Amino acid sequence: MMPDSMTEKPRLGRAPKIVLALFALALLLFTKSEPMSWADASRMGTIQSLVEHGTLSLDQSDYLWQGDKVQLGGHFYSHQPPMMALAGALPYGALHWCGRGIADPGTYRILTLTLVGLPVLLGLISLARLMRRIGASDGQTACLLAAASFGTLLLPYSLVLNQHGLAAGLVLLALSAIYNRRLATAGILLALATTVDLTAVFFAVAVVLPIAFPGLLERTKRGASGGLGAVLRYGLAALPILALHFGINYSIAGDWKPLGLHTEGFEYSMSPFLLMSLTGGGEGGPDGSFLAYAKGALVGESGLFSHSPTLLWAWILGVLGVLAHIKVADREVDDCKGTAEATNLVALIAAIDLAALGILFYYLTQSRNFGGSSFGMRWFTVFSPALFLLPALWFRLADKKMARRALLCLAPLLLWSCMASALGAVQPWSKFHYRYTDSPEGALNIDVATYPSATQHLQGEWDRITNFKKVFTLKSYDDLFQKLLDQHRRLYLTDWGGMTEEGRKLWLEEGLSKLRHVADLFDRENSKVQSRTVSHFWLAKFHIKLGELKEARRELEIALALDPSFRLAADSLQALNSTKHN
């Protein structure tokens, strides 16, 4: 028989409320106090520019010197979608009117709690209610809610001014709205989610399935109405927000594309994306492969399931739940009497599955660096909490003995997931490298004798993430770009094993070409930063490796002309001039 909860719309009991209260407390205690990544600094700069200067341009903001920006029409803009910054202008406008500045202590924290923490908490409340309506008991709902909130990357990215947590909260609210056939509300929520985090577009498209075909895989077609009219209600409600989003893009770039998709916008000196892809990388070594990357993204040190094994548990139970639901569909017709709940549930679960699989496929095929420099695969945050609706469907049909066994299996996985999430919450914007060989230094260090012990490495990693701090000045950005240049030359100049002479030459020429483009932009803009000098110095090293000594000498002379005190260039030039190949 169908649980009474399906018809009575049960209230949350004590256990789920305790989980929600603990998550709210975690938000209040651990939300960060200042930006520590390009992403949130870029967004803070846009919020400041909107309120203080009436523009989206970052040119006059406190956060110009960070990497998440494009240059279009002679001005710098955040390459993050603008909707979250527009929303943030409202609370910051009130704070600024009261005399508070964008960099004042507490401003970042207030904006993060308002724009991210509150929507995530509301989304989790909605998720818990939906679990109860599907048929999970109070205890089961509390366990699932704990896994969704504390056992995924939702917690780390709810503590920073980041789009992933906000989008996840909006998606949860939208799923509840669709389940209750409030389609216009769902359209507004998913339009916001999509214009905040483009990844949410997979959900916006997938939910057309339960909107248009609420009786999918059900034996009864009574109850909730679907069809073209339902899709129109959903789509028309989303139009104003989408129009605002695309209108902003058009006013800045002259077309509808998101600013981050304008590759020409990254053609400026010290653009980090000249050396790596927009998703944060693409330089995984000459022997990189899709299978190796997918393994790392799913079960490696940045893996979705290695950090949150509860997600795999939820997915497996979800599949079993859908199969069991279809098997007993005839009985459900009699029990549900054709209610909206009966003709909406499986289609909604299918949409969640499709959206999650779409996001997985997209980032496994379009990225090569495991979520940038952040902890774990942050791009998967948007779908992670929604997946815990899947086991709620299974619990609805399982007997008590099977349910207890499933929860016993969940317990150790949940402990592991919570520990990983807590580690990510310490510093969401810095990857924790569990093995030295997986760190940027270790990956390029072929001298095993210099490796630290495992204990030394882990202690060093802990010290690094707990003392992590970002300063957004020209000097700090120049210093960071020099580190990117150094990583670039080490990647390409390292003598990787297993390469043929021809392959090695092609690899070197690829690295040289990218570095030449960087140096040319510095020269074109007549930049005064030290990174310009360093780029010419490393160009010389590439030419030496390729045996092109004349070109190497020219690059070293340019480096010394830019900075006569650059000792490394002077020594290299002296050594080059003293060779018999002069």
Structure summarized in a few sentences:
This protein has helices at residues 5-8, 14-30, 38-53, 83-97, 107-134, 138-150, 163-179, 183-196, 201-206, 208-212, 227-253, 290-299, 304-307, 309-327, 329-336, 345-366, 389-397, 400-426, 440-443, 454-466, 474-493, 501-525, 530-545, 549-562, 567-577, and strands at residues 69-72, 75-78. The chain is mainly α and 582 residues long.
What would your notes on this structure say?
The chain is an all-alpha fold. The protein folds into 2 domains: 5-261 and 291-426, no CATH class; 474-577, Serine Threonine Protein Phosphatase 5, Tetratricopeptide repeat (Alpha Horseshoe), CATH 1.25.40. It has 25 helices and 2 strands. The chain has helices at 5-8, 14-30, 38-53, 83-97, 107-134, 138-150, 163-179, 183-196, 201-206, 208-212, 227-253, 290-299, 304-307, 309-327, 329-336, 345-366, 389-397, 400-426, 440-443, 454-466, 474-493, 501-525, 530-545, 549-562, 567-577; strands spanning 69-72, 75-78. β1 (69-72) and β2 form a beta hairpin. It is globular. The termini are far apart.
Biggest β-sheet: count, sense, barrel?
2 strands, antiparallel
Helical residue percent band: 55-70%
Percent of sequence in beta strands: under 5%
How do the strands line up in the largest sheet? 1-2
Poorly predicted sequence stretches spanning 5 or more consecutive residues: 1-7, 278-286, 332-342
Average pLDDT works out at 89
Task: Count up the helices.
Answer: 25
Which structural class fits the helix and strand makeup?
A: mainly alpha
Radius of gyration: 26 Å
Count of all domains: 2
